Amino acid sequence: xxxxxxxxxxxxxxxxxxxxxxxxxxxxxxxxxxxxxxxxxxxxxxxxxxxxxxxxxxxxxxxxxxxxxxxxxxxxxxxxxxxxxxxxxxxxxxxxxxxxxxxxxxxxxxxxxxxxxxxxxxxxxxxxxxxxxxxxxxxxxxxxxxxxxxxxxxxxxxxxxxxxxxxxxxxxxxxxxxxxxxxxxxxxxxxxxxxxxxxxxxxxxxxxxxxxxxxxxxxxxxxxxxxxxxxxxxxxxxxxxxxxxxxxxxxxxxxxxxxxxxxxxxxxxxxxxxxxxxxxxxxxxxxxxxxxxxxxxxxxxxxxxxxxxxxxxxxxxxxxxxxxxxxxxxxxxxxxxxxxxxxxxxxxxxxxxxxxxxxxxxxxxxxxxxxxxxxxxxxxxxxxxxxxx
Length: 389
Ligand SMILES: [Zn+2]
Ligand SMILES: [Zn+2]
Fold this sequence. Notes:
By secondary structure, the chain is of the alpha+beta class. The protein has helices at 51-63, 79-82, 112-120, 189-199, 213-217, 228-238, 254-267, and strands at 6-12, 33-37, 43-46, 69-73, 97-102, 136-141, 147-150, 153-159, 167-173, 176-181, 204-208, 242-246, 271-273, 279-283, 286-290, 299-311, 317-328, 331-336, 345-351, 362-374, 381-388. Strand 4, helix 2 and strand 5 (97-102) form a beta-alpha-beta unit.
């Protein structure tokens, strides 16, 4: 049976510079890199930020010695969108074949992206010579407004409003449409209208949400980025089904991104905050979102009574008593009769584990929902949470 699903994976979601701060590990610190696999298996990469390294390692693992072919769409030449290139292992394997697409920069001229490769690996910036990159590399110049097709996936590009230029990409696969529009500042009428056309009716619209609406109006005006509010406005007007907040500011902690997502969800139904490891599947008339399972840690099986408060998928507040049977230092798996919303917060009031003598010792924890699966009993949901500070 043919596969009718396209799969979009987020390997890097952070803007401007990679981060390794504890305060933002949950959404992730790698710079932009997305992988889109069309229903027929054709592989696309959107941007080559530091997330590209982990994607390369994953491909090496699953493909083994089989040749890899992929189409790589680059939005622009700012560091955060190209710095993963020298660390993409499949580029050093002769039988692999990569097709690159990007625009001609007025600062670089002909073969802009090819020049970026050469400059990145020139002495004294990188220890290995470009000649070590033995994979076949083909470079195609595209400009705003172009349309082309790659094995049944139609691609449209549009210029965005960003210093030194940036391209937005619309990829129409047979299973659904993904629009990738990062590094864009709203406010130029012609380009705003162009973005609306690019995003029209998309199943997934990934938009720059680096700043708060207040920052965008004041201190960060003219820096080339957008806000969740501007993204919501485009999503509404363009009739988008799912909005993904992307290109998180390096100084935005997880708590800050949680807050931006909460604000956006008050104004638009289907909003997600891009998170490293997040996978969105586009099937017939449906988009499914999966987050990476909680990190493993010291695991404690037990029987801890807990009271859980949160919001359901429909946005209703709920409260229920449950028993936690599987607990790690980072998170827990709990079974609930309610189905909380993915990427929402739960308050967990739990008996302190391991101390039965102190009957009134209670632990108040804040959990963040990363996984939802059917529970062991009918109408139950197994909810994976990670604890946040
Ligand atoms: Zn950027
Ligand atoms: Zn940029």
